[in-house]
Amino acid sequence: MNKKFIRFSAIAMLFAMNTYAQEQEPKQLEEVVVSDSKFSLPKEKSGKVIVQITAADLKKKAGQSVATILSTVAGVEINGNQSRNGKDLGLYIRGGRNHQVLILIDGVPVTDASGISLSYDLRLLPVEQIESIEIMKGASSTLYGSGAATGVINITLKKAGKKAIAGNAYLNVGTQTVAKSANYSVQDYNQGFAVNGGFEKVNYFASLNSTETTGISEARPLNSNTQFENDDFSRLNSVVKIGFTPTKKLSLDFFANYDRMKSDFDAGSFSDDPINFSLSEQFRVGFSPKYKYNKGEFVINSGANVINRDIFNFGSLFQAKSRSVNVDAFNKYEISSQLFVVTGAQFQFHEMSNMSLYDAITTDLAKFNMIDPYVTAVYNSDFGLNVNAGARYNIHSKYGNNLVYNVNPSYSFSESLKVLASYSTAFVTPSLYQLYSPYGDLDLSPEKDATAEIGFEVSLANKKLVLNAVAFQREEEDAIGFDLMTYKYFNVDGKNKAKGFETMVSYAFNDKVKFNANYTFTELERQSRILNPKHKANATVDVQATARLAFNLAYQFVSDRYLEYTTYPAPNFSPVLNSEILKDYQLVNANVRFELIKNRLNIFSAVDNILDKDFVESRGYSTRGRNFKLGLNFLF
């Protein structure tokens, strides 16, 4: 689709649809979580410290990517979020890796069956289509199956409102430059629109987004006298959701979306390449019926996706295709007002194929499926004790049977103090790529994880001050590693441990000034190649200066990171394993928002890396310096 057409459409929507302009109804923030039981549960009765990023929180971070927003959460590090727009991302929760984190979109797991780690690519998702996010850390395979070893990121997309027609159109423009560079020309465009509404028993939501960025080379030159070419990034996202409620007890929800992403990339660290590119196309469809009855609710979350990827690298084309199907049927039954049980069964199917000059993998070979029955019981007493416990039996077409379980008690001594503890296990099957690619090993074993945690949450001064802290330890057995000398995946001998501590504090000085901060300490027994900082801290101050004017000031500290990498020195070009310490860095960002026309037109301005710090996020790759962004959002 023509990029100029998308941009023109977004601008035209600002003015052409004022006929339908109506005042938006304010949404009340509900203190409930869903990730630890799959059903709405009062936050104070949950035995987990679950981080919620609400729609209001997303507004305060206008102009930032999904990866950058998630990287401000305690215990979460997304390497690449400070690099060129389109840089591949490393997703680490509590020192884990991409394949240990499960991502859900509207309750449906999303994966890339042809990807190295079977994990979803967050670059495919624009933040403008997101309503809220929940992050639950710790092993969660009991409820969510393979891949949920260090955490679950539960993303909820925007949905229909109660009016017959409503929506918004937006346009954001910004700079894209490295530190110590005075090039502040506009090179980042993001635009789109959404419409939603409902009538009688039908509701709908549709959104279109387009992003185009240039201005920065992915690779970083070894010296300032060398000039690398800029690497472009473009993305197109469309989603349609239709809901039908034939009765008060039954609802039927359908969705379909198309994502297209093209990104230039270089030959590696400190190495430019003018023609490398990757092109990804994703098609997703799904169906989620829900039926409520006297003592419970039955839900089916289903989805299927096809991903096609073309990668042109080192003068040749690599083509990959993947297909995944996920059906999760589960039922909540209230035995009493204090006890409910969730029973369910999940089916997953993944297959991939790829073709290049050097190798070919067919779907007849590279595929597997899983069938998992599971049960979870949630007990909420009237004297403060809460218990969440369950088990899942995984039946894998290649790896046989695996049993995982969790026990998660908590106790509320009063409305202001809660203590919690948990012990949970998880398993992670090797990806199809790790099994069947030229770098794979068909004899790989599934990784097994166990996580123990203990913590507390306290609220004082009528909930103006909230403080929580959690200590954790995770033990990995048969961890899946990658040998930098042989370029093969393997199971790490022995057990690997990760331990750490997370704390978050928030304080509301008054209705207009709020402060939030978090700190994470993570220590890995074996460093491997994970660019996870040992210390990380975030702090923000939010000020609602007037009814229409608000601003946000954010600070982030990332400590030293240990890195291993391979070089091939002349004359024999034999591989040599090296290590390096990437130095710590600090960032200061700001955001200002103003309601120009009440309930109609909002504008924002953002400055990232205000101090223009030149730092290294990934060895040999560029990072963004001081950059500016302006945007407007028109409501109708």
TrEMBL record:
Keywords: Cell outer membrane, Membrane, Signal, TonB box, Transmembrane, Transmembrane beta strand, Transport. It is a multi-pass membrane protein. InterPro entries: Beta-barrel_TonB (IPR000531), Beta-barrel_TonB_sf (IPR036942), Plug_dom (IPR012910), Plug_dom_sf (IPR037066), TonB-dep_rcpt-like (IPR039426). It is found in: Cell outer membrane. Its main location: membrane. Residues 1-21 form the signal peptide. One of its GO terms (molecular function) is siderophore uptake transmembrane transporter activity. Residues 186-610 form the TonB-dependent receptor-like beta-barrel domain. This is Vitamin B12 transporter. It comes from Flavobacterium glaciei.
